[in-house]
Amino acid sequence: MKEEKAPAKIQAKVILAKCPYAYSKSENLYGMRVQKSGNDWVRTWAFKIDAERAHHEGYDKARTNGTFAPTREYPGCPYCHSAGLAECSCGKSFCITKEADRKTERIRLTCPWCGQTGEYSAVETLNLSGGGY
Questions:
Q1: Which residue(s) pair with 15 in the sheet?
Q2: How many CB atoms lie within 10 A of CB 7?
Q3: Residue 105: its pLDDT value, please?
Q4: What stretches in the chain show pLDDT beneath 50?
Q5: N or C: more exposed end of the chain, with fewer CB within 10 A?
Q6: What is the DSSP letter of 51?
Q7: What's the CA gap between 72 and 60, in Å, rounded?
Q8: b/e burial code for range 91-112 (CB count within 10 A of at least 16 → b)
């Protein structure tokens, strides 16, 4: 009799990002569900979340490294719908306009986490940390 293997367990996390284009600077936090795919991560889903709930769920404690390419089904940021993602030197991520999604264009933005202004471009390889609302 052939022994059946149990299906591989899906490894998934939620990482936090902020949208600098949201109407409210106090309500711009969102979670991105990322799922392990080979040696990398892929972004599968995004949802609005408030800081209290994110802390309660432990999303603010996560540290995740790797490539975070969006899947075809990924809806993008729940505020501006961009799939572009940038990382600030503070270690936090935020969305970046669709114009910069081409990864060649750099645009001047202010990080919605720390307030640092600089030139950013969309990236897929990140080293992200949570917390510090």
A1: 32
A2: 6
A3: 65
A4: 101, 130-133
A5: N
A6: H
A7: 26
A8: bbbbbbbeebbeeeeeeebebb
